[in-house]
Amino acid sequence: MTGDLKIKLSHSQQAKAWAAEALYRHNTEATGIDDRAPIGAEVCDPAGKILGGLWGRTELGLLFLDMFFLPHCLRGSGYGARLLAVVEEEAKRRCCHRAVVETSSFQAPGFYANQGYEEFGRIDFGVAAHSRIFLSKHL
Question: How far apart are CA 18 and CA 8, in angstroms?
Fold first, then answer.
């Protein structure tokens, strides 16, 4: 059968979701732990409109931070630190011991360093003088 298989480029969200579920089932079978859960916090205006937030997941004792956005007008106001603190506290409640995040050199590495995150890896990419930075923190 392997001779009949074909490989094609794809951007199918359906295929990606299927593969993610299959991979998670494999991980659960290998570890015996089924604890993946989304996590997030949002900052909203008085009318309830979402202005920004922080989203990720907890799994296997780790907090994975996937996306963090605040509009320019809220940066430097303390809302970012407050969002991060809320998510980290919930992750600790879920028995997470470390947090992991990746960011770009032109995004927020200084913010994460100010919140106690330490760089553990860096990869330069195709934009001059910029890189992807990987950080972690003990919770």
Answer: 16
CB 98, CB 61: distance < 8 Å = yes
Q: Is residue 85 part of a domain?
A: yes
Kindly state the DSSP code that residue 16 receives in the 8-state scheme.
H
Q: Shortest CA distance to 66 belongs to which of 98, 36, 100?
A: 100
Q: Please return the burial class of 76, using the count of CB atoms within 10 Å of its CB with bins 0-12, 13-18 and 19+.
A: exposed
Q: Can you give the CATH number for the domain in which 93 is found?
A: 3.40.630.30
Coil, helix or strand for 135?
A: strand
- Dump pLDDT digits (tens) for 40-85: 999 999 999 999 999 999 999 999 999 999 999 999 999 999 999 9
pLDDT tier, 22 (very low <50, low <70, confident <90, very high otherwise)? very high
- Give the residue from 24, 21, 53 showing the smallest Cα distance to 40: 53
Q: How many domains in the chain? A: 1
CA-to-CA separations, 70 to 74, 102, 127, in angstroms, rounded: 6, 16, 23
Q: Which residue has the tokens 């951007």?
A: 11
